[in-house]
Every structure is written in C-alpha cells, then in structure tokens.
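Cont'd.
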Amino acid sequence: MTMGYKKIVLLKDTGSTGRTKEFYNLFLEQCRLENLQDDVQIVRVADIGMYDKGIVVRIIPGDITYAGVTEAHIQKIIQQTLKNNKPVKELLFTRASKQMRVVLKSCGEIDPENIKDYIACDGYQALKTMLAKSSSEDVINELKTSGLRGRGGGGFPTWMKWKFARQIEADQKYIICNADEGDPGAYMDRSVLEGDPHSVVEGMIIAGYAVGATKGFVYVRAEYELAIERVEKTIEQAREYGLLGEHILGSDFSFDLEIRLGAGAFVCGEETALIASIEGKRGYPSPRPPYPSVKGLWGKPTVINNVETLATVPVILRKGGAWFASIGSENAKGTKVFALTGKVKNSGLIEVPMGITLREIVFDIGGGMLNGKKIKAVQTGGPSGGVIPEHLLDTPVDYENLQKLGSIMGSGGMIVMDEDDCMVDIAKFYLKFCVDESCGKCAPCRIGGFQMLGYLNKISEGKAGEDDIELLERICNASKKASLCGLGQTSPNPVLSTLKYFREEYLEHIRDRKCRARKCVDLLTYHIGQEKCKRCSICMRNCPVNAISGDKQQGFLIDVNKCVKCGKCFDVCKFDAIIRE
Amino acid sequence: MKKLTKETLDACRSESQRKRGNWIKVGMSTCGIAAGAGDVFAILQNEAQKRNLDIRIEKCGCAGMCYAEPLVEVYVEGMPQVVYGDVDKETALAIIDKHISGKRLLNDHIYNVKVDRS
C-alpha cells in the first residue's frame, strides 16, 4: 500500500443523542471480529466540524466522510471502505467549511515572535514587489479594485482615505493603526496582533508608501499586555531585518513605527479622540470635517486604519485586488473576522466571506445553541450596534444590510442570545456601557445617555408607564442626531433596535410587570410550591436574609417583604419547589 | 543580522521554509494562556527534553477555536496533522506518550485533523 500511515477512523455523534462512546465500542468490536485492529485505529473525536448530521465517520487517508451512519452501516463501511478502499456512496457527505481564512490565515499557524515564520509564509513579499514595481498610485488603485472597506466599524472605503491623504502636500504625514478595541465581546484585533503582528506592520509600511508618510503609530490599549509585547518585538525584529527604518529593503523609502498606549477609554477608538490622545491631550473627540486624512495628527494628513484592515492590505497586494473582490457579496467584498460569543456552542474567532447569513454563522460554524435552547437574537456591532431577531437571521451579512436592520457591522463582535436573555436588560447593559464611557464633552450624549438609562431602569423595575417608551425614543433620536461623535450617535442603537423588534417585551414589563426571561430582578417574586415541597428546609437554611420561615411539620413560606430576590433558594432546591415568576 | 534587501528577502524565505521534521505548536495568545496553555507548553518542553525526543515545540497565536483552548497541534511524520483541544497537564503527557511515542491518536480531545489534499 502507498499510504503514509495506517487507516484512521474518526467518529462522533453530532446529534443530540450523545452515542459517540456506544458507537465507538460497536465499531471497535466489529473491527476486531474482522481482525483489523492492527491496521485500523478508531478514534472518538471532540469535534468533527459538522453539526446535527447524526453519527459522522471520517476515514483517513482518502478523507472520506460519512454522515447519518447507523449500526447497520458498520459492516458495509468495514467491507467496502476499510478493506477495499471503496466509498459507501449512499453515506457520502461533502465536508465544506463555511469559513475562509484570509486575515487569520497565519494566526495559529506561525510563531508570532519569529519574523522568519512570517517571511516563510510569503511575508513582506507584497512590500518587496511594491517597492520594486509599483507607484503609490498603483497601490491605491489596487485597493480600489479590491473594494476593501474599513473593518473597524464605519466601513469607509480604504482606498479613498488613502487617496485623500496622498493628494495633500505636506512635509510630514502619518499612519495610525487603531488597535483601541473596546466593544464588549470583541477581540479580533487583539488576536491578530498576538497571532500575526507582522501582517499589520507590513500593512502599515505599505500605507506609508501609498500616502507618502514616513512615520506611523500603533495605538493600542494598555490592557492588551501580550499584544503590546508582541508588537514591540515585531517592530524590533523588522528594524533589525531592514524592513523598518531608513531605506527599507535597500530602497529609497523610509518608514518607522512607534507604539502609543491608550488608557482604555472607549471613546479613544474614535479617530479624532485617538489623535488627541496620541498628541498627549485628553481623549476628547472633535467635530469633523476636517477629516484626519486632511488634518490629523499634529495638524498633518493622517490615515487611521483598523488592525484588521491593515492586516488585509498585504494579502490584497500579493494576490491582487480582483481576487479579493471576487470574494464576498455584491455590496461588500472580501472576508470579515467576527468574534462569535454568547450562547453558542463554539465560541471563538471566525472569518467568513461577506454575504454569509447569520444563521449559517451560528448553526454551521458556531455549532448551534448552547444547552439546546431556542435562539432569540444576535447582537452585532457592540454598544453601537443592535439586535437582529431570529426571523431575520437569513439576511446576508454586509454593511448596508445590517444598517437597514438597525444594527451595524461594527468591528465584528457577535453575541448570540437565547430565550433567557431579556431585551430590556440587554439594552440597559449596552447603554450603561456607553454612559460610563461617554467623555462628557457634548450634552446630547452626556445628558441624553443618562436620561435614557433612567427610563430603562424604570421599565426594568416595573415603575414605568407606556408613554415612557415614547419619551425614551425621542431622546434616542435626539442623541443620534445631535451628538458630536460616533459614541453618542450610535449608543441609542441597542435601545432602538430592541424596541423595534421586541416592543412586546417592553410592554410586558410595563403593563404586566413581567420579565419573560426572568432577568429583571425587581419584577420577580419567589414562593414555595407546596405540592412539590418535601420540607427538607434547605431553602430556609440558605436564605441570607431569613425571609423563609416554617418547620418540617407545617412546611415553609417566603416572606415577600423580606425577600431580596437573590435566587439562592431557587438554586439550592432539589425538587424544583421554588417558583420564580 | 545583515539588513535584508529586495534581493535577499527571497533567500531568507527559502531558508526559513526549509524547517522540516516533527513539531508541536501550542496556542499562546491571551485566550490560550488564560485557559492554561503556559503550563501545557512547559510540560511538553520538559518531557521532550527529558526523553530526548526529536521534536520542535513552538508557540503560535490563536487559531480561533477559543471554546477548546488550550489548543495543541501535533505533526509527526507518517501521521495526519492533529489539533487537540481542552489540553490539561494529563492530556499533554498523554500526547507525548501515546501520540509522539506510540504513534496513536488520543480519544475525545481531537478538534481537527488536517489532511494534505495535494
């Protein structure tokens, strides 16, 4: 036989029956009966990359995958595939990952602290070719062809930013990499900086060449210790190899980089505030125009791009703008990295072509919902985004579509929610984040945010009237229109989108004083269902405020006036006798 | 290190690509380290040294499967390239014993098997 190793059978029950072990034993036994135990290894795997396809069997070498396998098929698989290398046609399944790794290609593959690993994977080839053959105009045209748009939130065409900065005559121009990632649940930029920092540096050098800048800054929040350490090493190595500094790769072009640490203020991710912060001033945003590409850092033309955008640039130059534009949908080109988190089985970083649907992301890549609960919504874009309800999950993901639905692409945070998540509570969480992070410079954001949060608190405490919803909406719209920067303009989005899709839930809080997800503590009451109660007294013993009284003969009662609704009794009761409603 | 030029970059690339042989990679980004990749890396390094194994043990970034961190990817010549997840100290030792020395795959910890289709 020509194969390099003996046969391996990987198997896993991808359904909800959990029969992996049982099936493994059956398979093992039958292989023994056929005397194959020395030629075939059978392995139970933790994840086979497919979900809800019954028992899946993958055979290597040959890489044959069977789905929906039952006991009755085992013999056939052994006789045909293991003994005679022939597939069992009716079971064949084509595995196709819906992910496409462009930016993340080397993340998890290469040693980020070793420049040679990056060079071995064609690193700095784009830079080399550009320095040898392309004018700055060529580079910008290539980006235009690629259709790359900013991956940090706004989605502004990258080539246009670069072109504006290039056109202006100035003695000094700057490139800034915005690594001030701060959305709750988002960590794409951190992972790229930690896993493949040279790609960002190469992107920045290319940007410098294209706009005529000789100096760049990586603005990264101080909390990202490991990312900072790796970027520092990266810059050092790049200098040592002649990829940063004077006469890069022996050419006439010079460019150098420095790191600037942010103290972790969310508003500093906004470009004008970020520039103020680098200049040593307080991180306050300022009105645009003038845009940074015209008048930015220290009054000079400045291009600010997000980490992921910059990491995409070398790949585009290497493989061509047309190649990049061939990926994705009509409106949005290329791939996008998302941090998939929340109530989903496989939380992690994913990279998908634009135009994929949210349902594919959650169920085909994310492996479906945790604990088999029903999906309620997906939140995208962090505190500036909104929720997308279950019935709209088949919408293709791109900048315009998400905006139409009242959310945004944002930097790529994606939080999956199930029926245990209360939409008022979610709106409150995100708004609270923005109220805490508001810099206070403009009134609509500073005062409006505070007022909106007040109304949400009233609703979740059951103290609101129906007209409060209208007032809440009015303030939301005012903050959207009148705030100075993106923070205040977008902070009402989580409120407005939950109101749009889950108004009924808001009304339930107000009219019926009920929170269907049982998240809003003030609307809950606890009492003991006497028919289920076994009078074990565990609830009484665990109540921290002595709100439960009674004895083993009489049974127990909760005093609602004393109860602080901590839920301890509910958690400790073994007989589901505590009723929470 | 002599500074690279447009001409010598390609030589550096071919030289860097020439690394062959067996290797283990441990995902050492924040997500991995938070899940205990630091200990796993140390154990693998110690064991490999103790047993005089001919294998390179390297760090890498986040492969995206944060739900299964710490992730350890193993390549041993003549076997498929395997990604193990949820690797604790015991699993790390089992990887050395069973996979590297015994040339058999571990049960219940495999999250991906990469097959060269070329």
